[in-house]
Amino acid sequence: TIRPVRRSYYDPSSAPGKGVIWEWENDSGTWTPYDMDVGITIQHAYEKQHPWVDLSAIGFCYVIDFATMGQINRQTQRKRRIRRRLDMVYPLVSGTLPKSQSWPASPGAVLAPPVPTCTCPQCLLVMSVKATAGLGNTTLQPRKATPVLPATPKPPLPTAGPKAPDGVAMVRGSLKPLAAQGGWRQAASTPALSSASASGSSSSMGSGKGSRPSLGTLNHSHLQRLAIAQSRVLIASGVPTVPVKNLTGSSPVNPALAGITGILMSAAGLPVCLTRPPKLVLHPPPISKSEIQSIPGISHSCRKTTKKQAKKGKTPEEVLKKYLQKVRHPPDEDCTICMERLSAPSGYKGPQPAIKPDLVGKLVKCSHVFHLHCLVAMYNNGNKDGSLQCPTCKTIYGVKTGTQPPGKMEYHIIPHALPGHADCKTIRIIYNIPPGVQGPEHPNPGKSFTARGFPRHCYLPDSEKGRKVLKLLLVAWDRRLIFAIGTSSTTGESDTVIWNEIHHKTEFGSNLTGHGYPDINYLDNVLAELAAQGITEESLAQEKD
């Protein structure tokens, strides 16, 4: 496959030219940088001292508020934190370190006499890494002086190297700062000995006849302890860790890629520690039926949805009459549906409703004004459920329902705690929707649809707010708003069941994908998403009625 590439130039006065990076806080609490063009737009408004900037001009429905350093979704009103930080000027290049950060320290900067430092490979490695990373005049605390050994022939290394413990391997390259000290020696040649062998070694050292044992003299447990200790020293000293899948498995592919990574980093004079990546925990430990409990205050433990219950007897004109006031003298502005002036007839060119194209109406709650002709056409192209949503501010009139296909929702309490919610148990929700045929309210009526990944397991903390979210999710389920039929954003498959803008947590014991815990803002965010669908605490009272 051949794809075109391009090179972009950024002006030195722009955000990347100054090393300015704008970032937003994601659901897992970490920071994600904006795309380069978005960052440039934000920085330009920031330098002009604007109080806010609307990103809709570049295709994003967000408003950046500099007063609160927040990003606001114009549709859902969800707010995220943003931040501005300084980094290296674009492009990111490496060069010689400034003299003030060079290593070792200049003689004039140290007043006290130099203290002899430890020359074992572990300490040399730490010092070299800090020197390469430019950590300033940092030195290690000296160990006890070790008697100098006479030169002895280097024992031959075994043909098979030591086996690292599960999930840990190490790759190191030659480091230039060590050249003056006789070249690089593998840290693995400094084993952690047992107490017996250590005492024997010290006595031989005192007599000047002993030599350091080779790796061939160590058993498997000693080698494991040695490798673990070395990896801890590497990580603690700032050596970058590279997560590698299948590090000790049978397939050589991933370890080979890890080896290439190690070679590239070693070529730059950096050691690297290969580790196994964190484990994805999607589901809790096995649970017996006797451990599953019903949720207090919520009747039953299962809900089913069937086909859409059509509301008959009301024409679009009758529905809209409840939510509109006629406007005799339209304001001098555009109708945001057809983009024609309100003082002119509607520009809608589709099937013509039985209403005059020049009539104008105002929605009673939000006071936005549209052509009645356009509103009727918009209603006819929607779900026709008796509700209306303002296309400008998303205010909902009536009870909004969706097009979720038939399925089942189960919910109960399991005796395990979520990360970040150790003080309570967990509510587990299980959604199950089978594949089927699309109805008249779906994108392609009569065509079959798929349902991938079902049953889907989701989790909430069994707290007061967690139960409140569950009750509102039950309302959303009854109104068919949790799922829809469309095109998957992850696989690109069309005519399949997808989530419908109400986020769920599908990871139980981790948060590697951003869909797990801990996430201190999740419950508040999902309440805001439910409110954007017209589901609030008032909805609970309506359902009871």
- State the shape: globular
CATH architectural label of the domain at 407-542: 2-Layer Sandwich
What's the N-to-C terminus distance?
Answer: 60 Å
Rounded radius of gyration (Å):
33 Å
CATH class of the domain at 407-542: Alpha Beta
Annotation, overall tally of beta strands: 22
CATH topology of the domain at 407-542: Enolase-like, domain 1
Within the largest sheet, what's the order of strands? 2-1-6-5-4-3
Number of helices: 11
Which residues form runs of ≥5 with pLDDT under 50? Answer: 92-115, 132-215
The largest sheet, given as strand count, sense and whether it forms a barrel, is: 6 strands, antiparallel
Measured by DSSP, the beta-strand proportion falls in 15-25%
Share of helical residues: 10-25%
Q: Mean pLDDT, rounded to whole units?
A: 74
Structural class: alpha+beta
Structure, described:
Helices cover 23% and strands 17% of the residues. The protein is α+β, with helices and mostly antiparallel strands and 545 residues long. The protein has eleven helices and 22 strands. Among the domains are: 16-86, Signal recognition particle alu RNA binding heterodimer, srp9/1 (2-Layer Sandwich), CATH 3.30.720.50; 316-397, Zinc/RING finger domain, C3HC4 (zinc finger) (Herpes Virus-1, 2-Layer Sandwich); 407-542, Enolase-like, domain 1 (2-Layer Sandwich). A hairpin with a 6-residue loop joins strand 14 and strand 15 (396-397). The relative contact order is 0.08. The model is unreliable at 92-115 and 132-215 (pLDDT under 50). Helix 9 packs parallel to helix 10 (522-532). It has a six-stranded antiparallel beta sheet. Residues 187-206 have a biased composition (Low complexity). Its main location: cytoplasm.
